[in-house]
């Protein structure tokens, strides 16, 4: 067992805890309404609640979408930090998982596509975290439009890889768990998109709840990689990085490009 086992669970714990802190700060600073609030008005001129207490009168501008919670300072600063650090951790996890699959099985388009989807998800998170919706709406929506579908594609492909690599009963149980998490992510993302395009306060609030469910579900999915990362070795990242270089290596017995991981052991030693 290696220290890499801490990385996936750290991503889940750090990000889930962080976004809930952002939500709590936004509620206390009266930038959004509590998630348990279902009453919205067109005007809140009669809202006399004191600063530091939740809003007592809410409009559609106060719906507690995750992005809305991280729009205004000081919570926007923490929101950006979570997005940047979380995206970095996602990239590391994706590369380690990519290399681990290569070590356990031959390279496949599913594994490569999963890596691309994971890194795309991370890029979208950086955009979402640094371009707040009220100040850079177009860029923020582009980031969300990239991050959410890419995250869903990533978890779907990882379900396929999990079943492909499963050898023991516990491996199949993990695959079943990931399929369940993926189903929840798919349903919540679709419903969130459907509800979000309507102006109804009820549907907007449901969209916010579905968005929270989707994000937390995806983060829990990333945390499940703790199960495999106990077997990550020092050569796992090398396996991921080396593959592209290995395609340019020539096999002694063939003139075609070889994808064998040991075609250049001297280069590996230098790494």
Automatic annotation (TrEMBL):
Q: Which organism is it from?
A: Pleurodeles waltl (Iberian ribbed newt)
Q: How does it sit in the membrane?
A: Multi-pass membrane protein
Q: Which family does it belong to?
A: Belongs to the DRAM/TMEM150 family.
Asked if the keyword Cytoplasm belongs to this entry, the reply reads no
Q: What is this protein called?
A: Transmembrane protein 150A
Subcellular locations according to the entry: Cell membrane
List, in alphabetical order, the GO biological process terms annotated in this UniProt record: protein localization to plasma membrane
Q: Does the keyword Cell membrane apply?
A: yes
Domain CWH43-like N-terminal, which positions?
4-230
Q: Transmembrane residues, as ranges?
A: 5-26, 78-96, 108-129, 141-165, 177-197, 203-225
| Alphabetically ordered keywords of this record | Cell membrane, Glycoprotein, Membrane, Transmembrane, Transmembrane helix
Query: Listed GO cellular component terms?
Result: plasma membrane
């Amino acid at each position: 067992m290696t220290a890499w086992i801490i990385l996936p669970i750290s991503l889940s714990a750090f990000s889930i805890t962080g976004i809930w802190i952002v939500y709590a700060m936004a509620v206390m600073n009266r930038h959004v309404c509590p998630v348990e609030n279902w009453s919205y008005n067109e005007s809140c001129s009669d809202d006399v609640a004191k600063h530091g207490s939740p809003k007592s009168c809410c409009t559609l501008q106060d719906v507690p979408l995750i992005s809305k919670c991280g729009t205004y300072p000081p919570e926007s600063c923490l929101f950006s930090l979570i997005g940047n650090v979380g995206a970095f951790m996602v990239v590391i996890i994706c590369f380690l998982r990519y290399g681990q699959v290569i070590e356990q099985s031959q390279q496949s388009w599913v594994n490569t596509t999963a890596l691309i989807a994971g890194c795309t998800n991370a890029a979208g998170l950086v955009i979402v975290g640094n371009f707040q919706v009220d100040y850079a709406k177009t860029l923020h929506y582009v980031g969300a439009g990239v991050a959410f579908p890419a995250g869903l594609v990533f978890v779907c492909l990882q379900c396929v890889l999990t079943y492909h690599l499963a050898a023991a009963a516990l491996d199949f149980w993990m695959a079943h768990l990931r399929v369940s998490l993926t189903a929840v992510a798919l349903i919540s993302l679709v419903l969130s998109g459907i509800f979000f395009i309507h102006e109804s306060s009820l549907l907007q609030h449901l969209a916010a709840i579905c968005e929270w469910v989707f994000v937390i579900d995806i983060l829990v999915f990333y945390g499940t990689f703790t199960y495999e990362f106990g077997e990550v070795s020092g050569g796992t990242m090398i396996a991921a990085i080396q593959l592209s270089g290995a395609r340019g290596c020539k096999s002694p017995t063939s003139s075609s490009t070889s994808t064998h991981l040991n075609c250049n052991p001297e280069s590996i030693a230098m790494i």
